[in-house]
Amino acid sequence: MSDVELVVPKWGLTMTEAMVIAWHKQPGEALHAGEPVVELETEKASADVEAPVPGTLARVLHEAGSTVAVGEVLAVIEAAAEEAPTVPTGVLQRAQLDPARSPVARTPDSRAAPQAAGPGRPTGSGRASPVARRLARELGIELSALEGTGARGLITERDVRQAAAGAAAPSPLAADVPPDGPRVAARQRLQGRRRAIGQALSAGLAESPQVTLTRTADVTGLVELKEGSGEHFSVNDFLIAATAATLRDHPQLNAHLVSEELWFFEAVNIGLAVDVEGGLIVPVLRDVQARSLDEIRARRLELVEGVRSGTTAPADLLDATFTITNLGAWGIDAFTPIINPPQVAILGVGRIEERPVAVSRTVGIRSESVLSLTFDHRALDGRPAAEFLADLSEPLGSRDRLAAFTGLEELASE
Checking DSSP bridges between strand 261-264 and strand 270-272, what pairing results, if any? Predict the structure, then answer.
């Protein structure tokens, strides 16, 4: 028999640690491959880590309530005799492509043996789960005053919400009075998701020369198709479908830049920025190039609901090859989106507005929107980026052309 280590997987670009919420199995219990072993929670979501091979749970190295870094060993599995302790094919393939993404399982090597959590070894940053800590900050709840109902007294999200329901409005922070400046009404430290987003985007800007191109696009065809569907589809549904179709002809934008290598992908996995309390979360619609508009809509609704309810699976935040962020609902005309590395481009979408436009020497009313494409100048130059933006914009103004892009020819003919 051979030992296989179960480690904390990396479930997103900004993830550095996770909290152990509960063990589904105890040492000595048998495991089947794919069976949930332990539940982990990050500030974005909670999910189970599954057994990569059949065998027996030999040792648990971190008890419930511990905060464990990405890549650190959680437990050791004694693999069944007939199972070679190898990483599953799909995970191994991902690790070869991006070493920063730790596989769920790995075999022990010459590294030092992991130490168990205990006296003298820190087990975490507090007795509250990451989601509970984030919620407490948002609601102004003092965690030290709460008694947790979770494992070993762990403060859970429900504990914080119950405390908030029965608490008076939090008092404002004490104001500072600088000797030569305006009075400070309150101070708030960047923490949790807000801090992680800031660190990731700052790193991206520091590492890559980012250039933004803007183009005013005629989106009359998009508006007509949307209205013709009885508002069944959203603006984002059409944009996702049209972007995926355009990326097939511009593969240099459907790429990652990793260690001075460009990786081009067959699948178009589009991340859609969703605003939630405390920052942005970007769930990923996979294989968009192979989905119908109905499938895109259904998956978008499912992902957005998961983000807003806090039930998003970590896997739904991984592997975007291109991102769309739409600020039109907030009345924004144009902006400069920041690339989420290792992607090489991101599309920003402004509000749709009816404007008088000269068409064939006459003035007509057309629907227009400003599209802002930010690209990594290390990966491509301005001309291919401009060509992508032009090819994306062209079908949006034509009901028939956009219908052909999205497979809704019958809707266009009505």
Answer: unpaired
- Which burial class, exposed, middle or buried, applies to 47 when counting CB atoms under 10 A from its CB (0-12, 13-18, 19+)? buried
CA-nearest of 369, 366, 367 to 348 is: 369
Q: Is the dihedral of CA 133, 136, 140, 146 positive or negative?
A: negative
- pLDDT values of the chain reduced to their tens digit, one per residue, 414 residues: 588 999 998 876 557 788 898 999 999 999 988 888 998 887 666 788 889 889 999 999 999 888 888 889 999 999 887 544 443 333 222 323 333 333 333 333 333 333 333 333 333 334 677 677 777 777 778 888 787 777 567 787 777 877 877 654 444 444 455 556 677 767 766 666 666 667 677 777 777 899 999 999 999 999 999 998 888 999 999 999 999 999 999 999 999 998 888 999 999 999 999 988 767 889 999 999 999 999 999 999 999 999 888 888 888 988 899 999 999 999 999 999 999 888 999 999 999 999 998 887 889 999 999 999 999 999 999 999 999 999 999 999 999 888 887 776 666 555
Own/partner pairs for 14-17, CB < 8 Å, 24+ apart?
A: 14/196, 14/197, 14/199, 14/200, 15/42, 15/44, 15/70, 15/196, 15/314, 16/69, 16/70, 16/196, 17/42, 17/67, 17/68, 17/69, 17/70
> How long, in residues, is the chain?
414
